[in-house]
Design a protein that fits this description.
InterPro entries (chains A, B): PRA-CH, PRib_AMP_CycHydrolase_dom, PRib_AMP_CycHydrolase_sf
Domain Phosphoribosyl-AMP cyclohydrolase (chains A, B): 30-103
Structural class of chain A: mainly beta
Family (chains A, B): In the N-terminal section; belongs to the PRA-CH family.
Number of domains of chain A: 1
Shape of chain A: globular
CATH superfamily of chain A: Phosphoribosyl-AMP cyclohydrolase
Strand order of the largest sheet of chain A: 2-1-6-5
Radius of gyration of chain A: 15 Å
Subunit structure (chains A, B): Homodimer.
Number of helices of chain A: 1
Subcellular location (chains A, B): Cytoplasm
CATH topology of chain A: Ubiquitin-like (UB roll)
Oligomer: homodimer
Order of helices and strands of chain A: EEHEEEEEE
Distance between the termini of chain A: 41 Å
Chain lengths: 122, 122
């Protein structure tokens, strides 16, 4: 069946959550949001494009930083209300310069950092 | 710093998205929602507990099916508005009896199934 982005289930703001996972290593790097047009653009260009809720604008991931996400495969969940993006991440995914946005963990009731920012050369 | 679920950023409905990832294999299994109390219960019991938006009730994953999720570690993203749950999944995570809810992929513009339901014994 031909994939139609308009058949996905979007929230009241017209958005669907998209989880970015490193295709090879399997690391979950971040979660952001897409509207139907961002889904289409991501598939068409192979360059992951989110919708920035804060800026209310398309957000081609890495467009300014160079930390782009190349799409390997888009997957859809059972309820069609969440996307999983298998990607190849250049550099850090997180704006804090860490590889993943999920760099804090709860261990024995305490919140700790488990990941350092990447060096500039990485 | 002691972890305080009330410091997470919840949406207008008081919910935060939580991604469940198999701790060993790294497979992303599903995404569901938690409120602050569900976050607390999950940490206290070690049994992943979501908030069901359709039933408007706590949803101890696998309580009726036996397909429970045991928490290995809870991680928090940079913006404190998304959780990553490293878990051990018993049986299928998806209500369709598939291991993962993300069992459809878009390949060359076509939506295909890439994962079959699990056998009863699995």
């Amino acid at each position: 069946m031909e994939f139609d982005p308009s058949r996905l289930k979007y929230d009241a703001n017209g958005l669907i959550p998209a989880i970015a996972q490193e295709a090879e290593a399997g690391e979950v790097l971040m979660m952001a949001w897409m509207n139907a047009e961002a889904v289409s653009r991501t598939l068409e260009t192979g360059r992951v494009t989110y919708w920035s809720r804060s800026r209310q604008a398309f957000w081609i991931k890495g467009e300014t930083s160079g930390h782009v996400q190349d799409l390997v495969e888009m997957r859809i969940d059972c309820d069609s209300d969440c996307l999983l993006l298998l990607i190849r991440q250049t550099g850090p995914a997180c704006h804090t310069n860490r590889r993943s946005c999920f760099y804090r963990a709860v261990r024995e009731g305490v919140e700790i950092e488990i990941m350092a920012p990447m060096a500039a050369s990485e």
